[in-house]
Amino acid sequence: MDYPKEEQVESQKPDVLPLSASAYLDPQYWDERFAQEDHYEWFKDYTHFRHLILQHMKPHSSVLELGCGNSQLCEELYKDGITELTCIDLSAVAVEKMKRKLLSKGYQEIRALVADMLDLPFGNESFDVIVEKGTMDVLFVDSGDPWNPKPETVEKVMAMLQQAHRVLKPDGIFISITFGQPHFRHPFFKAPEFTWSVEWKTFGDGFHYFVYVLKKGQRSSENDEFTTKIDVPSLSLFHDELDTEDFIFRTDIDGM
Question: What are the residues whose beta carbons fall under 8 Å from the beta carbon of 134, sequence distance 6 or more?
């Protein structure tokens, strides 16, 4: 019997949704989820933002992906000629599955490592580009008031950014693909210890996703108003295209 496409997808999808948003902070939840789930893309797949990030990479760029999970981002970058890739995740289950998948596809050059983004096991100035997609957002799921996050949230987010800043080369670039609006990200990105400039672009219609591009060593010394927004044509995404889990990370500032 032929079932409608939506019913087929639903019947094949593992039951991986957590009981509460705070479960996203539990490493055990991710191990259990990755053991069941083979692939999931947070905040849309590569085709939606390829034009926004590939321009900041060159074939010889050394690229680090934070929180690779079971995303295909590193594979898509590899297909586009970015071969010096390292992807990390805190989940050993995710990394082992990623290694097997990459090996089966012949992508032996991509390294997959178990590592904590809050304490990166790399030397200073090791990478040209760091990219994360939805990984930082997880740190905010139990942050409380988005205008005044809990101290423990601030500590973790700052640790992540400090580590990224440390392992970036002097002219390196940090790319963050997120639901986090500028109102809430700028206080972190503008912290005085960081030397990067910030640009941000959006994609999506109605509910926007944000792509932040932080360029190390290019922060303006004249004043603190160094954030630049570059408008680009938005892609045609409809509200019903947003995945259920994406909404967990959306802060509706218009309703506050």
Answer: 42, 43, 67, 177, 178, 179, 249
